[in-house]
Amino acid sequence: MHFPEQKCVFVHVPKTGGNFFTRCFLRFSGDSMVTSGHQDGTDRFELSGDATKTKHQTLAEYSELIGPAFADYTAYAFARPPVERMISLYYSPHRWMREQEGGGFDLDARNEPVDLKEFEELVSLNKSISDLLDAENISGRLEVDQTARHTSGARVSLLDFADLRGGLEKFGRENGFDLTDMPAKKVNSSSVNDPMALNAGQMDQINKIVMNSHHGKDQQFFAKDTPKGFFETLSGWFRSKS
Predict the structure, then answer these.
(1) 20-61 pLDDT per residue, tens
(2) Do 79 and 158 contact (CB within 8 A), yes or no?
(3) Residue 145: Cβ-neighbour burial (10 angstroms; 0-12, 13-18, 19+)
(4) Is 25 within 8 Å of 94 (Cβ atoms)?
(5) How far apart are CA 235 and CA 106, in angstroms?
(6) Residue 226: its pLDDT value, please?
(7) Which has the higher per-residue pLDDT, 37 or 66?
(8) Percent helix, strand and coil across the chain, each rounded to 5?
(9) What is the dihedral of CA 5, 22, 235, 98, to 10 degrees?
(10) Closest alpha carbon to 127 in 164, 163, 85
(11) In 3D, which of 33, 58, 52, 31 has the Cα closest to residue 43?
(12) By the 8 A CB rule, do 154 and 73 touch?
């Protein structure tokens, strides 16, 4: 999402609260929401603007489209631990929507354990946070709640999905946006409430699939996390959404 007056962009990493971010800030941006097919304009939609060609546009793509002026920009994104994010993506509503014969779409909740082969394919086909932020071209160490510098000159500010509301407030505060009417409800939540319970017997395999993939490097954004603490956090996060 592009905010030309504030000279900033938001890089929407899938399953990190980006749709909720859009509900809060679209009215301040230079972009418009567009829908087609099964998209409902709340959980599923696209964005379009002078420098925004797709909702999940990368930092490198923004840099190329905006040009030399991007050196004065700040790029914001939310980060979420890679295993947690990939599980959430697997159970994301858009993956289980089925078109009904009489028109419209129905959501198959898919309240069953992860199919490991299908999960591994999903992990391999989707971009990591590092890919979306062009991390290879960021100097210095980038961690949640910290900033670093992209080779374009732009600042990169990484917000913590674990404190989504705090990150939204920080973005609003730094860019002069009034969020007194911030929506209370998150959107596009995963289609099951407790994937930890569903997948209790295969979390080791799930963890290995993600951490041995290109997503594994995203754990660098959460250097202080331990495996035990991570799985406790993951289980608690999903239970809190039930």
Answers:
(1) 999 899 999 988 888 655 444 455 567 888 999 988 999 999
(2) yes
(3) middle
(4) no
(5) 27
(6) 44
(7) 66
(8) 45, 15, 40
(9) -150
(10) 85
(11) 33
(12) yes
Based on C-alpha coordinates, what's the Rg of the chain? 18
HSE at residue 58, side-chain half, CA atoms within 13 A, is 16
End-to-end CA distance of the chain: 30
Place of tokens 């959107």: 187
DSSP string, 7-52: TEEE---TTSSHHHHHHHHGGGSS-EEE--TT--SSSS-EEE-SS-
Q: Locate tokens 């394919």: which residue?
A: 121
Q: What does the chain come to in residues?
A: 242
Give pTM, 2 decimals: 0.84
Q: Which is more confidently placed, 111 or 207?
A: 207
